[in-house]
Specification:
Distance between the termini of chain B: 52 Å
Shape of chain A: globular
Strand content of chain B: 5-15%
Largest sheet of chain A: 3 strands, antiparallel
Helix content of chain B: 40-55%
Order of helices and strands of chain A: HHHHHHEEEHHH
Strand order of the largest sheet of chain A: 2-1-3
Helix content of chain A: 40-55%
Oligomer: heterodimer
Strand content of chain A: 5-15%
Number of helices of chain B: 8
Structural class of chain B: mainly alpha
Distance between the termini of chain A: 49 Å
Largest interface: A-B, 21 and 20 residues
Radius of gyration of chain A: 19 Å
Number of helices of chain A: 9
Shape of chain B: globular
Order of helices and strands of chain B: HHHHHEEEHHH
Radius of gyration of chain B: 17 Å
Structural class of chain A: mainly alpha
Number of strands of chain B: 3
């Protein structure tokens, strides 16, 4: 089965139209989330990541996290309103899974850019120097992240982050949709690479290391530098 | 230094049917990758991990339980458990499978779940809601505190009922690699087809008989 309609524009219409319940929720002050647009076409990251994967990943996987996060938030809002503590606690995992999925993927789309828009261009300025300082070279950092990403069992993410207290770069992995902050409260994500199988399987099959090798061609170091410079001015 | 010949080395067992036999419900392409690459890697990597260690020569089940280490997983656990899980998964399916069980198995399901439909719903829900990678199981609990011998479980990554002291009867792999080529993100569709067209109730029946006689 092949989805080939891929030179079309980025995404569906903006936020999913919210029906009665959600409208009432906003009235009560509950802010739900919506699927962010991609700043590039689905096909724009080829051949590193296929358009077929980008479309499924954005329109199906990320959208599902958004939908389920909003649902869980609604239920949480109700449970809190009723003072139903067991229900509040029970909903935490749904919020972590789906909210984490939404947070992580929102960062991921910004971590990628077409080659014509700077994807793959090595970081300059203070982030470039910090990488050389901490990891000896960009290449060494890439090898480290690829090794940890390949070794991750099951589903998860491999991250380059900055500890905003210690002003230090770190490489970390998280499982499932745990955001980077679950590994340390002062960790800010700079680059996250999704190593869930849905991120690469249609193109790379079981060969996750090839996906990791190729994704660096479209990594958006400009965005990572902006975030870094904000935390470490 | 000459390489020592390992005393015992695991082999990749083929499924009990040709790789195209589950078409169109599970494609040959999927079997080629899932069995031919993923399952094969688990076997090869496990062999590399245990050769020359005290785990070599132990039964696979012993290696699994030993390296589960009460939840503080030792490095060979993932490969060992995944070898076992995948052997079990191929056995859980057959060409022309699906439908309903009969006889003792059906009676046991009706006794412990209320009805086959209620079991099916619970099993499908477990498979659909296992977040991230993992498995859903029908398992036999030899020492049930509530009198229910049959239970539905979901487990993450490589964990399986053996480490919980249960006997596995049926499994569905819900790692994305199990269904992505055929169903993409549509895990619920894959689960439905598994129940309707793939489950080998014969295999489940045979395993239940063994489990019951061992518990007696």
């Amino acid at each position: 089965m092949a989805l080939r309609a891929l030179l079309t524009r980025k995404t569906l219409a903006s936020a999913p139209r919210l029906g009665g319940a959600a409208a009432a929720a906003s009235f009560r002050g509950l802010q739900t989330s919506s699927l962010p647009d991609l700043p590039y076409d689905y096909g724009a990251l080829q051949p590193a990541i296929s358009g077929e994967i980008m479309q499924l990943h954005h329109q199906k996987h990320h959208q599902a996290y958004v939908t389920n996060y909003n649902k869980a938030l609604e239920q949480l809002h109700d449970a809190m309103g009723k003072g139903d503590a067991p229900a509040v606690v029970k909903l935490q995992s749904a919020i972590k899974f789906n909210g984490g999925g939404h947070v992580n993927h929102s960062i991921f789309w910004k971590n990628l850019a077409p080659i014509q828009e700077g994807g793959g261009e090595p970081p300059k300025g203070s982030l470039g120097w910090a990488i050389d300082d901490h990891f000896q070279s960009l290449d060494a950092l890439v090898q480290k992240m690829n090794a940890e990403g390949a070794a991750l069992q099951g589903s998860g993410w491999v991250w380059l982050g900055v500890d905003k207290e210690l002003k230090k770069l770190v490489v970390e992995t998280t499982s499932n949709q745990d955001p980077l902050v679950t590994k340390g409260p002062s960790l800010i994500p700079l680059i996250g690479i999704d190593v869930w199988e849905h991120a690469y399987y249609l193109q790379y099959k079981n060969v996750r290391p090839d996906y990791l090798k190729n994704i660096w061609k479209v990594i958006n170091w400009k965005y990572a530098s902006e975030v870094y410079e904000k935390e470490c001015p | 230094m000459a390489a020592a010949i390992p005393a015992a080395k695991l082999e990749l067992k083929p499924p009990p049917y040709p790789l195209d036999a589950l078409e169109p419900n599970m494609s040959q392409n999927t079997l080629l990758f899932h069995w031919g690459k993923h399952h094969r890697s688990y076997v090869d990597n496990l062999n590399k991990q245990i050769v020359g260690t005290q785990l070599q020569g132990k039964s696979l089940e012993d290696v699994i339980v030993g390296t589960y280490n009460n939840g503080d997983l030792l490095p060979p656990f993932n490969n060992a458990a995944q070898v076992w899980n995948h052997d079990f998964f191929w056995d859980s399916m057959k060409p022309g499978g699906g439908g309903k069980p009969t006889g003792e198995l059906l009676k046991s399901i009706e006794r412990d779940f209320g009805s086959f439909e209620k079991f099916s719903e619970e099993f499908r829900a477990a498979a659909a809601t296992q977040f991230g990678s993992g498995w859903a199981w029908l398992a036999f609990n030899p020492r049930p505190s509530d009198g229910k011998e049959l239970v539905v479980l979901k487990t993450p990554n490589a964990v399986n009922p053996l480490v919980l002291g249960y006997t596995a009867l049926l499994t569905i792999d819900v790692w994305e690699h199990a269904y992505y080529l055929d169903y993409q993100n549509r895990r619920p569709d894959y689960i439905s087809i598994f129940m309707e067209k793939l489950v080998s109730w014969d295999a489940v029946c045979a395993k239940l008989e063994v489990a019951k006689s061992q518990a007696a």
